[in-house]
Amino acid sequence: MKNLFFFLSCLIAPSILFTQAIQDGQENRSGSSGIEGYTPSAENLEARAWFEEARFGLFIHWGVYSVLGDGEWVMNNQNISKENYEKLPALFNPTAFDARAWVQMAKDAGMKYITITSRHHDSFSMYDSKVTDYDIIDATPFKRDVLAELAEACREADIKLFFYYSLLDWNRDDYYPRGRTGTGIAGRQPGDWNEYIAFMKAQLTELLTNYGPIGGIWFDGHWDQMGWDGKEFSELKVDWQYDKLYGLIHELQPAALVGNNHHLGVIPGEDFQMFEKDLPGQNTTGWATSEDQIALNLPLEVCETINGSWGFNLQDENHKSNTELLHYLIKAAGYGSNLLLNVGPMPNGQIQTEHQASLAAMGDWLRQFGTTIYGTQKGPLKPTDDYAITRKGNVLYLHVLNPDLDKIHFDTFDGKISSVSSFESGKLLAHEKNRYELDIDLKEVPVHKIDRVVVIVLK
Ligand code: GLC
Question: What is the pTM of this model?
Answer without folding.
Answer: 0.94
